[in-house]
Amino acid sequence: MAICTASSRLARWDVYLETHMRLDTRVESIKEWRNAQLSADQVLEITGFKVNPKGRPRPSRIERLRALVEKSPKLEETLRDMEYVLPHPDHPATRLNKLLITEEYPLIAWYWELVLNFLHIATQTLHSGLDQDERARVVTEFRKGPRGGDLNHLSVCILMYTRGGLTGGAVGALSSAEVEGDKALHAKRRQQPVQPVTISAPKMSLQPCCVKGFEWDGTPEGKAIPFPTFSNQAYVTGSNSDAAVMLITDVFGWDFINNRLLADHFAREANVTVYMPDFLSKDILKMDFPDWAKNGLDIQAFISKHSRDIREPEIFACARKLRSEYKKLGASGYCYGGWAVCRLGAKGNDLVDCISMGHPSMLVEADLDGVAVPIQILAPEIDPAYTDELKEHTWKTLQKNGVVFGYEHFPGVEHSCFTRGDPGKAGELEAMVRGKSAAVGWFRQWLHPA
Q1: Residue in 184, 199, 49, 58 with CA at minimum distance from that of residue 118
Q2: Are the CB atoms for 251 and 211 separated by under 8 Å?
Q3: Domains of the chain by range and CATH?
Q4: DSSP bridge partners of 377
Q5: CA 260: distance to chain centroid?
Q6: Which of these, 109, 5, 102, lies nearest to 49 by C-alpha position?
Q7: Are the C-beta atoms of residues 378 and 358 closer than 8 Å to each other?
Q8: Nearest Cα to Cα of residue 378 among 311, 437, 318, 450
Q9: Do the strands 243-248 and 273-277 form a parallel or antiparallel pair, or are they unpaired?
Q10: Which phi and psi angles does 64 have, rounded to 5°?
Q11: 162 secondary structure, DSSP code
């Protein structure tokens, strides 16, 4: 059994995985593994945590995983997507952190990120699965909060495993036949040639913060018209015949009142015509859906239906249409729209003159690598979607590539504050106003040359 660990969250606290790993620590069978009663401390001893020495570059998650694999040449399983979101009755947003890769049964450990400056995971003896009562007790321990900021309190707890891979299969205890047959399976597989290990990039996904927010008061000033390229519609506001902005919305879509009110502000204050197309084919979320997990929203199914590969051609076609009609065109994207505006502003596309994005989601490093037009980034301090690693990559990459950029940091506020912030919540009204004004200034600067 080989044990690997990866977490972009850990990188926030300058913690990185030690590349030392005992070569393929093995347990010959699930039964033997159970009898071994591996403790959390033993698991950490195998993987190893260290505080990042001051001044030493912090490796990316994929680099850390590659280093682990290089130190464990017998590892036969393909490392699975480390960002897969799995359901849990009390923590629907719990994400995969520690993956114990066996030769047949992947075992999944979970973590909870606390709002404090370190990670605490309750120390537990590893089990192949916990029943509902045991799981509830573990959740209670997590909710008690951290015992201290020392990294010695980092440990792991197995709550369940999923047979047949991480994306599906039965969950529960192994049958006696499976347990007894496991040793023979190990012996057979060890005689097979070692297969090369591949490592996939993090899976693009929405975070729970992407589907939360506050609905604003107001009356939109624009109108809905059939969009000239497709059979769907667009909200259009403003009357400038020379300069336009295409606003790509979050998952609440083109008819969400907050998005329309924001478009109106852009049109009036930046003196542009704003087009906000329906890129979700009317498959939008509602603000009266306060708890998407408990109400049965399948966020992965939603993202699959509106994946980047599916929506990007449509977004590009709309931009080309507007590009042919206006002398200057900008693009604005919030949350789901963040990745899209980066793609519009990529080198060689010649689709927009500038872009602005706020709390982007589904963004990958390659999107930032390709940007070639002036870009504005509106970044809340607390954002599980636009991580500290992505922020750091943003600064380094845009400077290295010589791209003009403006970076606005918003301390103390969370993802969604610019489009779904609560005016009654401390700091959020200020962030909304400042974020709107920053975007207006950006578009006035680049779409209205002196």
Answers
A1: 49
A2: yes
A3: 2-190 (no CATH), 208-447 (3.40.50.1820)
A4: 357, 407
A5: 25
A6: 5
A7: yes
A8: 437
A9: parallel
A10: -65, -40
A11: B
Burial class (CB in 10 A: 0-12, 13-18, 19+), 10: buried
Contact 149, 120 (CB under 8 A): no
pTM > 0.85: yes or no: no
Q: What's the DSSP call for residue 171?
A: B
- Please give the structure tokens belonging to residue 135: 């799981």
Residue-wise burial string across 146-174, b where 16 or more C-beta atoms lie within 10 A, e elsewhere: beeeeeeebbbbbbbbbeeebeeeeeeeb
pLDDT digits (tens, 9 = 90+) for 278-315: 887 666 655 444 444 445 555 666 666 767 888 888 89
Nearest to 38 by CA among 50, 22, 53, 52: 22
CA–CA distance, 102 with 100 (Å, rounded to integer): 6
Look-up of token digits 């974020």: 435
Give the integer Cα–Cα distance in Å for 197 and 212.
38
Q: Are 48 and 100 in contact (CB under 8 A)?
A: no
Q: How far apart are CA 128 and CA 15, in angstroms?
A: 27
Task: Find out whether 386 and 414 touch, Cβ atoms under 8 Å.
Answer: no
Both tokens assigned to 207: 């975070």
The backbone torsions φ and ψ at residue 137, rounded to the nearest 5 degrees and listed phi first, read: -65, -40
Query: Would you give the DSSP letter of residue 35?
Result: H
pLDDT tens digits along 143-202: 444 333 332 332 332 222 222 222 222 222 333 343 344 334 334 433 433 232 222 223
Decide: 399 and 436 in contact? Cβ < 8 Å: no
Distances (CA, A) of 427 to 89, 343, 431, 437: 31, 31, 6, 15
CB 85 within 8 A of CB 95: yes
